[in-house]
Amino acid sequence: MRFYYKVNIIMDNNNKPPFSKEFVLKTTFRHMRKSVDISIRKTFDRMKDFTSEPSKKAEIFETLDVLHKTRKLLDDFQLNNKHLFSDKDDNTKGEQR
Question: What is the dihedral angle through the alpha carbons of 57, 58, 62, 68, rounded to the nearest 10 degrees?
Fold first, then answer.
């Protein structure tokens, strides 16, 4: 499933798009997470190819373990560093007054 986002870029006086640390970090982490998820899925799918090779099956489990830990690290980092990923305009969203 693919998602397409329409992005309206407002150019500054130098005809360059504005820079946003939050946007860069969110985009980077989204791509990292997607890559890890793809690797998990494809590695798991290879399990059926090695039913008769215990050493290769063990290697697949070790790989899956590392990939799941990597995904957890990404999630925990984002959760514990929300200030790095939130747009300045989003600071009041969801707050009750």
Answer: 50
CA distances from 70 to 23, 26, 33, 64, 82 (A): 21, 17, 9, 10, 18
Q: Provide mean pLDDT across the span 7-33.
A: 82
Residue keyed to tokens 């290697």: 59
pTM for this predicted structure: 0.70
The domain ranges of the chain are 21-83
Q: Judge whether 46 and 60 are in contact, CB under 8 Å.
A: yes
CA distances 63 to 60, 70, 82, Å, are 5, 11, 29
Q: How far is CA 68 from CA 13, 15, 27, 71, in A?
A: 44, 42, 20, 5
